[in-house]
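[worker-b] picked up task from shared queue
[worker-b] task type: protein-ligand structure
[worker-b] ligand name resolved to pyridoxal-5'-phosphate; SMILES cross-checked against name lookup, match
[worker-b] sequence length check passed
[worker-b] input payload:
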Amino acid sequence: MQVPFTRPYLRGDEGAAVAEVIASGWVSQGPRVREFETAFAERVGALDAVATTNCTSALQLALYVSGVGPGDEVIVPSLSFIATANAVWQNGATPVFADVDARTYNLDPVAAEAAITERTRAIMPVHQLGLPADMDPFLELARRHGIQVVEDAACAIGARYKGRLIGSLGPLACFSLHPRKVITTGEGGMIAVNDGEVAERLRRLRQHAMDVSDLARHGATDVVIESYPERGWNLRMTDMQAALGLCQLDRLDEILAERARQAARYSAAIDHVPHLEPPFEPGYAERTWQSYAVRLLPGAPLSRMELMRRLMTDGIATRRGVMAIHEEQAYAGADAVLPNTEAATRDSLMLPLFPGLSDEQQDYVIDRLATHVTALAA
Ligand SMILES: Cc1ncc(COP(=O)(O)O)c(C=O)c1O
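[worker-b] inference finished, payload out:
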């Protein structure tokens, strides 16, 4: 049996929505992007939402409007995709790595506070693999220290913290629409914004800070000459992507329910397998299960790499756990002591989980996993 690691949930009717955009002749950022932004903001409980090319550019812009620039420091977890730190660097600032909580794998508020210096401008909690970070302490410490909060919510559309949607909690939360995320537009990003003026500035900055959008110019009754009050970027989403995004958003509840169902099946089974530990579930969170990471406990009879190799031989695709950015050459020299991060990246692996994975395939994964670990343990 072959079991792929993931697949986007595309049902076949998306083509008609994209074709409609093409037939309209308006293929770059236009009415569909606006419609998608409105629907997205409503779904994540935000005042507004601003579409961009991907989550990395969304994070870069969100940090920029938070005042992050050269000479500043931004506190981030090292246990994240490298984009988290790169977005800080893209603003000329320095990412400062703080450790994660050993159980949730999310940034630890105590470690983050200890990393604050007089140069700290912002803090970036990551809702890793769709599990909300413990937001109340972050928002509180940001208030106390007068620093900004930008949430990396790449994997967290639809997730809730203490019943409240990710996107409704802090000033700026950035989502990814890459095919490995919960919903996709091929490539794409979205910034949930809870301040109307900031939203308008973000809309300008993503189109070279031009003060008139193409949509506004199109609807104008007189000639419009635009101006450029500041410098910006070209980070426009296309209307074709937005049409796909609207179809995906319609299916979000269905996708989240199926992901949760599969995660519950994994956890119930893995609970009984020696040397393996299912993901910890803090009581405050409803997660998206963008990925399912199982932990290989210390003393296990085989390494994580060996287990992944054996599963690959069985036809099962897995991925290593979340990377540790400070261990990469790109961030060599980052002066960081991060024992929980190093253990988490070393000991965890991600299992196939996506709408379309059959129960039969999932049972096969569970069976092979248990066989490899217990056969060697015996
Ligand atoms: C935590 C995290 N942040 C940021 C990103 C970057 O997202 P994108 O590929 O949309 O730029 C990812 C994507 O893998 C991610 O997992």
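[worker-b] attaching auto-annotations
[worker-b] Residues 54-56, 80-81, 83-84, 126, 152, 154-155, 176, 178, 189 surround pyridoxal-5'-phosphate (CB under 6 Å).
[worker-b] releasing lock
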